[in-house]
């Protein structure tokens, strides 16, 4: 497939939870080899989108193609194989195995999913740990790591199998500014060094604008803006601009819909 083809291509995808429509015939393409930050109001379905791409959730209709494979139509085995070979995921809740040390955490996917000899696994693990700056910490236990270090070990584990795409869900949450800076640098650096396609869900608008080639803003079940941070800040529609600038006033109202304030006060307080 050519570099110009998007790595992820979604067409007419709808997905509901109960009677709530989260995605409404959505179309979106995520470019190959780039970092795209998925943004939008809380509860709009950003994590859900990553899970639909990863095949942990299936859409009600439409296609979700990853490198040309329509994820909802893969058999269970084909999906597991595809995910194992091509996808790395770093979810905020994706904790390390507490009873394995750093080395064994990173070695885990290689031991489970490959027949590589232990000497090669050792070299690969040390290489991945070197990439996140923690080769020297390979014998530590998760309890001995700071939050930022644990996140970097999880990142080394996510790239252990040399994925083509990596999805990050809120990778900066709970990190101090220095650890956050390191994760930002790593996401960008790994993207370039490994030629990855990276999707990032984050509430941090400033960091996302710094790190991402493209922003994808979702709201109301659709993509309402897609472009470089600069393009969207300058030329996005009013709702996109309001979101990116964090303005309390704009097309998204501060007030939840309510009856006239004065009339309600004068009505004497009936519920
Ligand atoms: N397991 C679940 N069962 C039922 N509803 C769910 C489940 N997980 C999420 N939802 C609902 O689906 C909607 C989208 O959730 P999702 O976590 O994808 O949003 P989000 O945009 O990532 O939110 P946030 O920015 O707050 O993390 C929300 O209304 C949420 O309440």
Account of the 3D structure:
This protein is α/β, with parallel strands linked by helices and 271 residues long. The chain has a 6-stranded mixed sheet, sandwiched between helices. The N and C termini lie far apart (61 Å). The relative contact order is 0.15. The mean pLDDT is 89. Bound molecules: adenosine-5'-triphosphate (ATP). Adenosine-5'-triphosphate (ATP) binds next to helix 1.
Outline of this structure?
The protein contains ten helices and ten strands. It has 271 residues and is α/β, with parallel strands linked by helices.
What is the fold's blueprint, element by element?
Blueprint: E1 6-17, E2 20-31, E3 35-39, H1 46-54, E4 61-66, E5 69-70, H2 76-86, E6 87-91, H3 102-113, H4 118-131, H5 147-158, E7 165-169, H6 177-194, E8 197-201, H7 205-211, E9 214-219, E10 222-227, H8 229-235, H9 238-245, H10 261-266
Parallel strand pairs: 3-8, 3-9, 6-7, 7-8
Antiparallel strand pairs: 1-2, 1-4, 4-5, 9-10
The structure holds adenosine-5'-triphosphate.
Keywords: ATP-binding, Nucleotide-binding, Transport
Domain ABC transporter: 8-245
Pfam families: ABC_tran (PF00005)
């Amino acid at each position: 497939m050519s570099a110009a083809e998007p790595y992820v291509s979604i067409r007419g995808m709808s997905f509901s939870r109960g009677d709530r429509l989260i995605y409404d015939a959505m179309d979106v393409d995520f470019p190959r080899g780039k970092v795209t930050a998925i943004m939008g109001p809380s509860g709009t379905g950003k994590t859900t989108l990553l899970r639909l791409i990863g095949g942990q959730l299936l859409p009600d209709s439409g296609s979700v193609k990853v490198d040309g494979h329509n994820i909802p139509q893969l058999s269970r085995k084909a999906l597991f194989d595809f995910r194992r070979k091509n996808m790395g995921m770093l979810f905020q809740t994706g904790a390390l195995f507490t009873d394995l040390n750093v080395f064994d955490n990173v070695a885990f996917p290689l031991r489970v999913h490959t027949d590589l000899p232990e000497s090669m696994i050792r070299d690969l693990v040390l290489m991945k740990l070197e990439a996140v700056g923690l080769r020297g910490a390979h014998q530590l236990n998760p309890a001995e790591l700071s939050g930022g270090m644990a996140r970097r070990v999880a990142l080394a584990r996510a790239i252990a199998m040399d994925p083509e795409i990596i999805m990050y869900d809120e990778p900066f949450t709970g990190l101090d500014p220095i650890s956050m800076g390191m994760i930002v640098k790593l996401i960008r650096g790994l993207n370039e060094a490994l030629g990855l396609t990276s999707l990032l869900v984050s509430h941090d608008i400033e960091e996302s604008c710094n790190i991402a080639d493209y922003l994808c803003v979702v709201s109301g079940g659709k993509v309402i803006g897609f472009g470089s941070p600069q393009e969207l800040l300058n030329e996005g529609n009013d709702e996109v601009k309001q979101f990116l600038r964090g303005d309390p006033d704009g097309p998204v109202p501060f007030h939840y819909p309510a009856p006239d304030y004065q009339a309600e006060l004068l009505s004497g307080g009936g519920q």
